[in-house]
Amino acid sequence: MTQEPRPPFWANRMLSYWTPYDPEHLLEHIERLEPQVLQIGHFGPLFYSMAHTESWAYFGMPVAGIDEGIAWWREFVASVQQLGISVVGLMSLGFFFGDHDESGKGGFFKFWYNACLNNPNWIEAVKRMTTQAIEVIGLDGVNSLYNYVGAAAVNTARRGCEGT
User: Is 0.85 topped by the overall pTM?
Assistant: First the structure.
């Protein structure tokens, strides 16, 4: 099946939020500012590694749980799109894991992780998260960030990904 080419899109008014700060009033705020594009949220590994935890409230989410988060985002995105605004999601390719010490000061890089971008399994996982964000949640697109390997030893990571 051949897709029709999309018409060119140009915008000069954009809002960007990492999280839905003050979700109760956010839609009213967005409507008042009249952007053409809203970039918001975490729809990649960060969402799937944190949505089921109590820490997820730190990211401004009013609900916890993966299914609950998907349902909330789907409703929110549709509400924004009804205003004639395109919604682009942030897809942070880094994610949190592990136990943090009780003080919450365990050190950012003790629990922040970036996967091997040479790993075909990771690439497949990112494709699935992107598909979920666009086809299920209804985003108009995604903008990925943290597309780097971080402090990983690249040659070691490549050998591990290749199974050698």
Answer: no
